[in-house]
Amino acid sequence: MRTSRLQLLAAAGVAVASLALTACQDGTGTRDEGASASQPVASTPSDASSQAPEESASGGGGNGSTANGSTGSGGDTAGSGESGSGSKGSSAGKGSAPGGSDDAPATFNPCNGSNTSVSAAPVSRPVNHMLITVKNTGSKNCDLTYYPVLRFDEMQWVPQPVEESKPQAVVTLAPGESAYAGVLLSAADGSGSGGATGKKLTVGFQGRTPNSDGGPAAIPSLPAAGVYYDSSLTVTYWQSSADDALTY
């Protein structure tokens, strides 16, 4: 009897345990495991993080707009600066124009055969030299530019100047003043060629620019025997003193 009762109790316990296990498998425990398994799949954090770049981009766009505004303003400022610089350049240009007009040359009045008296005479020293003298006979100053252009008779070539005799400034003669030019007629050692005796001398005057016409020429008197010259014939620039003219 006791054994049968124990067996019945044991069978009842197994039945109760089976019911409890069944209850556990069909209860909230199973749901809890499902819930905990579903948590890592939640998309909210990823959605939030996916929205962050959009917000950042939007915010960056706002900052970019501000930066563009600043850059634009800076560009306007730079433009204003350039405009100001350009205005200064224009002012400088305007300033230089009057300066150019203020530097206009003084009135030029050439000495020539119409307002001077001209003489030409051979000298004893240095040998084979002649001195040309020009005296202002006019009523106002006149200017002697460069050097006299000499021509004996029908000579077809023009004597060259002595470049070392070029003065620092144009020689200006007041009324009654004189200027000079020295002439080397021929080589002292006889090395010149094409020697001839000139009977007539024409003295030409230059204008403001080299080889330009300075006005009427002069024809000074020569010795009756004439003046001998050869290919060595040269002339100095106009000088303020006879000594300077005969130095070359």
UniProtKB/TrEMBL annotation:
Residues 45-57, 88-102 have a biased composition (Low complexity). Residues 111-239 form the DUF4232 domain. InterPro entries: DUF4232, TAT_signal. Residues 71-87 have a biased composition (Gly residues). Residues 1-23 form the signal peptide. Keywords: Signal. Pfam families: DUF4232. Coiled coil: none annotated. Residues 26-121 are annotated as: Disordered. Residues 109-119 have a biased composition (Polar residues). The keyword Signal applies. This is DUF4232 domain-containing protein. It comes from Streptomyces erythrogriseus.
